[in-house]
Amino acid sequence: MSQLLVKAKPHQIAPGVTRIHEVTRDNSILEYIEFKVLDLEAGSSYREELVQKECCIVGLTGKIDVFSEQKVFREIGTRESVFEKKPTDSVYLSNGQPFEVRAVTQARVALCYSFSDEKRPSMLIRAADNTVEKRGILNNQRLVHNILPDSELFANRLLVVEVFTESGNWSSYPPHKHDEDNLPHESLLEETYYHELNPKQGFVFQRVYTDDRLLDETMTVEHSNVVLVPRGYHPVGVPDGYTSYYLNVMAGPKRIWKFHNDPNHAWILERQGQ
Ligand SMILES: O=C[C@H](O)[C@@H](O)[C@H](O)CC(=O)O
């Protein structure tokens, strides 16, 4: 199995709290990003101390309260399924503080981390604060909710976005990469994909590859899988009949999303939509 594909490993870590994913520097090939997905039963709590990490807590489904050092964020979350396709609430927490996530209802939560030693104010990112984009034409149309884009300046390194791609369409396409610290042409951002499929038995194909093909992995990705993108192009293809969801976390030395399209496929962008 590819070292870039991480399958869910449910593990109870506290009463009512099941860890679905835990991607860390120690167990992955990533340097800038760590990532967790947790399932919480109503009334259960997850506690953690952010030492030199910032965290964006995304209310994937259900409702949670978030208790940080300075603030309490109540009733975070807007949906019972990501496939309601409406933006959700998130909370940005800076480094150097403990926090608690308490489930108001049964909830699935994504904890998106990057390394940070510069304390910032904790912030509520309301669903209404997400900018929503319809990207692409023909068969590469997708819906994008920008949760923590580079235009929002209150995070040190983190970028967070969620993407919906319908049946028979491609996203992260034409293939692009952001693996060179070469601004203004390209930025260096590692990336994670947390995938969901509707219906759940579905799959997508994701390729992660470099120009020299020294890295060239094509994966069958199923519901609740994570894909790591340390470098390279990373397109996603969605089979007929299914809807794809993924949550992207990006981080690198500079918090700018400047990607470079694979020149072999950039012509895709020249076509006219019907
Ligand atoms: O680099 C960002 C990620 O690849 C996705 O968020 C991608 O941009 C989504 C898309 O444009 O299809």
From TrEMBL:
EC identifiers of the protein: 5.3.1.30
Superkingdom: Bacteria
Keywords recorded for this protein, A-Z: Isomerase
Enzyme class: isomerase
Pathway in which this enzyme or protein is active: Polyol metabolism; myo-inositol degradation into acetyl-CoA; acetyl-CoA from myo-inositol: step 4/7
Pfam families: KduI
Transmembrane segment boundaries: none
MF GO annotations: 5-deoxy-D-glucuronate isomerase activity
Catalytic reactions of this protein: 5-deoxy-D-glucuronate = 5-dehydro-2-deoxy-D-gluconate
Matching InterPro entries: Deoxy-glucuronate_isom_IolB, IolB_Bacilli, KduI/IolB_isomerase, RmlC-like_jellyroll, RmlC_Cupin_sf
Family: Belongs to the isomerase IolB family.
Purpose: Involved in the isomerization of 5-deoxy-glucuronate (5DG) to 5-dehydro-2-deoxy-D-gluconate (DKG or 2-deoxy-5-keto-D-gluconate).
HAMAP family xrefs: IolB
The protein, known as: 5-deoxy-glucuronate isomerase
